[in-house]
Amino acid sequence: MRNKLILLFSLCLSITAFAQDGPVSFSLQEAIDYALENNRTVKNAIRDIEIAKEQKWETTATGLPQISGTVDYQNWLQQQVSLLPAEIFWRRSRHFYSCRV
Fold this sequence. Notes:
Mean pLDDT: 77
């Protein structure tokens, strides 16, 4: 059983070893362009520049005038009526006086 696993593992390794492409030849300018395009340091530097531009815009935007507004609409077809106890105006109890607001 162990021999079969070792054989299977080595077979898989040998198959994946041949999966790479053959050698690629570049001219000097193509090699420089390829190196600049795929270099991690260059990619990180480009990202840092983009982040710095965004942070600069955020700082600029905080200094710009800010606008805010609200809209409110109430459709009152009739004037609101509030019922007050009549005891406030007269000494009658259990009566209400209508007051327009």
